[in-house]
Amino acid sequence: MKVAVKYTDAELIVAVREEQSRNKAILFIYQQYAASTSSFIINYGGSEQDADDVFQETVVSFIEVVKKGNFRMEASIKTFLVSVARNIWFNELKKRERSGHREKIFEYGRDQKEADISHEIGDLEKKRQLRELVNNLGEPCKKILMLFYYENLSMKELVEHLPYENEQVVRNKKYKCLQTLTGFIKSNPAIAQQISEIVKS
User: Fold this and answer.
1) 9-101 domain in CATH 1.20.120.790?
2) CB of 30 within 8 A of CB of 59?
3) Mean pLDDT across the chain, nearest whole number?
4) Which of these, 16, 52, 57, 121, could form a disulfide with 66 (CB 3.0-4.6 Å)?
């Protein structure tokens, strides 16, 4: 589209202030400065739509500054428009970065929570199956394994709860119990893999 009216910076300021000439002035601003300003936005990661949106916001800001009499002519209109567009775009990038960061934190937290719940359910199921097998071992083995795997007692602590002389005796008894338990597990391959991490001497 051919520019009907051309303005110097000073003339453009006057045209923007006057309501009857403002539309022509805005048309001139778009035709003269949109391309260079949009190019800046695109070079800094924006899309054409981003560039259009930013320039529109820039023009609105420029008009408001001029109407309020705050444009001091300390820089050219082109320099002013690029500066405003840069600030708008960089602020937008910061917002997007913060939003993306929050989203990543939320997704990570949700994934972690789901993973923890799945792990917890899996542990409960494995321990339930182990308990059922341990019940078949007889009372001495059942007590040793329950105290060790479920109560997380050390060998030293086990001696205090069981009628055995020392830690080595308990360790040997536990080993024999595990050997028997291993035999039960091998006869049931479906759960062998599931509880193999729990049944370790």
Assistant:
1) no
2) yes
3) 75
4) 16
